[in-house]
Give the backbone structure.
Amino acid sequence: MQFRNAMTIGTFDAKPVGGGDREYVNTVVYSFEYRRSRNDEWKPASVTIHKGYRFNGTSRPGPFGWLVPRYGALSEASGLHDFIFEHRPFLEPGVRLSRKDADELFLEFMRMIISRRDPGMWTETRERLAVAMYVAVRKFGSSMWDAHDGEFKDA
């Protein structure tokens, strides 16, 4: 699938809760367009994360913790990524988000956050960081995908 026009409806905020997790303070709607192939029309879609959803922030290898904080500017995209991994939402009947879709949306929303928060001189550096984070979840995310509910394993 391909994605574009990422935006959020609602204000993202997450408060610390036990075990190092964070919890959504508000409901946030992640809105975007998708198409299944180049020949398809773009369709609107969204994923809603309700107030109270808990996530563990941005996962990163130990040596890179200083570079990518667990709860930084990109937490909004990490929350969506974690939610898709845990819930495997459908965009329409018969069209469930896959691991690759979760990773692609993670990148799309990181880019949206970068453009919204910092349209200035650091944009290129942050874009590289977003791509590096995308590559990391593509390379190392399969064990987390497989660790969730077995009914979703082949989604």
Remarks:
- The radius of gyration is 15 Å.
- The helical segments are 75-87, 99-117, 123-140, 142-147.
- The chain has one domain: 2-152.
